[in-house]
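quick one: zinc ion bound model?
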Amino acid sequence: MNLAVGLAGVGVAVAIYGSVATWSSASAQFRHLRIRTVTQPIPRKYVSITLNSTFAATLYVVAVLIGEGVLYQQEVNHSVLRVLVDSLLVLLVYDFLYYFFHRWLHTHTMMRHVHGVHHRVQFPEAMDGLFIHPAETTGGLALLFAAMAVVGPISVASFLIVAFVHAVANIATHTNLVVPHPAFALFNYWAVRHDFHHSTHRNSNYASIFPVWDRMFGTYR
Ligand SMILES: [Zn+2]
Ligand SMILES: [Zn+2]
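yep, here:
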């Protein structure tokens, strides 16, 4: 499959998931499932989220245009096992790098000039993972592409899985919902852990996908 076409499909799937998650967390019907109810709306937040989504999509376009042979290989047929292992490795390396990036963002200077934008959110909503400073968007995606280069060049299938999981985790951590069904266990876990990060335990739960890094470095709550 052509990577650009595949990424367009991933973008549509993520947009649908984000829309459903946003609607669900705002719906009175699911009020009883909320971790906390939003009481401090941020003006023009969705304008920033839309601009930042466009910026992130642009960075993906750049990665597709200049990353062949380094980040990914268009013409390669890896086995299903290789595709899955590569995807897992990229996400592990990315999340390890992101852990330290996020800790750095919590230093006084970075919080004041960059990460403070995201922490204006005290009551997370689904798309708040994209309510961040453009420098943070750039840094986060640069780490994701760096992880691809370290593990890869990976196949198009692995690239699509990584992009999908990265985006879904980014939304899931901010959904503000705990759905009492085993099928949502991972999503609930992500949402509760990251809610701590936005509320009572700001200096904990820095990793976005795997809790192992916070456990390893003593910041797990
Ligand atoms: Zn933070
Ligand atoms: Zn957050």
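Strands lie at 72-73, 154-155.
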